[in-house]
Amino acid sequence: MFRPALAMTVLAVCFSASGGAAVITDPANDFIASFTGTKSGDLDVLSTFATFNGTNFQIGGTLNAPVGTNPNALYVFGFNRGAATSNFAALGLPGIVFDTVITMTGAGVLGGRDLVANQPITLPGPAQISGSSFQFSVPLSVLPSLGLNPLQYGINLWPRDASVPAGNAQIADFAPNDTTFNATAVPEPSSILLLSAGVAGIALLRRRMHG
User: Fold this and answer.
1) How many CB atoms lie within 10 A of CB 12?
2) What whole-number distance in Å separates Cα of residue 17 and Cα of residue 22?
3) Spatial distance between the Cα atoms of 123 and 57, rounded to a whole number of angstroms
4) Is the peptide bond before 4 cis (omega within 30 degrees of 0)?
5) Whole-angstrom distance, CA of residue 76 vs CA of residue 48
6) How far apart are CA 28 and CA 51, in angstroms?
7) What is the pLDDT of residues 118-177, one digit of tens each?
8) How many other β-carbons are positioned within 10 Å of the β-carbon of residue 186?
9) Which of 6, 66, 129, 171 maximizes the CB count within 10 A of its CB?
10) ∠ CA 58-62-65, rounded to 5°
11) Which pLDDT score is estimated for 187?
């Protein structure tokens, strides 16, 4: 027997389970000991996130001060697509590995580099910035798999102070502190529309059955 109320509940549960980002939190004022730059709040990560909808990664974070407070701030996301050889073992953090970097400036300008192919990455932009938070999209087409499923890609965010001579002394913070995290799956816009249409259709059918 068809039960519209049950069908609506199932759709609602599926929608809520597939939506939303898992937020990775990071302690305030946890600048790493080797950092020699300015301890500005916008170089201190409070949280970061990444979602993947099958076509694009949406990544971003929240800082301890408005983005751009330090005019020399850079925000680097490292990705491990399955061929990571670069790491931060020199800082005692061998668990943060990456084969690609995506960088945002304090003004929201985006760029990147595939460290395996040694080629620059061009990204749509600029990033969306609102006070101490920011986010932007990275198409999967510029991050092709090197052995891992996109939902298995390892990700980490580390702000840098570009006024410091190049090297690890530029890095102010890591989020997470000593490892990587994975993106959360979310539905594509077309899937959301399909779910919405399904719910609307079930509601209409229910009204007709009880009308």
Assistant:
1) 12
2) 11
3) 12
4) no
5) 12
6) 23
7) 999 999 889 999 999 999 999 999 999 999 999 999 999 999 999 999 999 999 999 999
8) 18
9) 171
10) 145
11) 87
The C-alpha torsion from 184 through 84 and 107 to 49, rounded to 10°, is: 20
At a CB cut-off of 8 Å and minimum separation 6, what does 2 contact?
A: none
- Max CA-CA distance within the chain? 74
Strand partners, 207: none
Mean residue pLDDT across the chain = 86
What pLDDT, in 10s, does the model give residues 26-39?
Answer: 999 999 999 999 99
Side chain identity at residue 135, one-letter code: Q
Give Cα separations from 174 to 31, 48, 117, 145 (angstroms). 8, 10, 25, 24
Please report where in the chains the tokens 């192919």 appear, as a residue. 117
Question: Which residue reads 């985006």 in tokens?
Answer: 110
Per DSSP, the three-state class of 119 is strand
Separation between Cα atoms, residue 64 and residue 39, nearest integer Å? 11
Secondary structure class of 49 (helix, strand, coil): strand
Nearest one of 75, 74, 120, 116 to 97, comparing CA atoms? 116
Write down the residue that tokens 């996301």 correspond to: 77
pLDDT tens digit string along 74-119?
999 999 999 999 999 999 999 999 999 999 999 999 999 999 999 9
Fill in the DSSP letter of residue 165: P
**In angstroms, rounded to a whole number, what is the distance separating the alpha carbons of residues 132 and 60?**
11
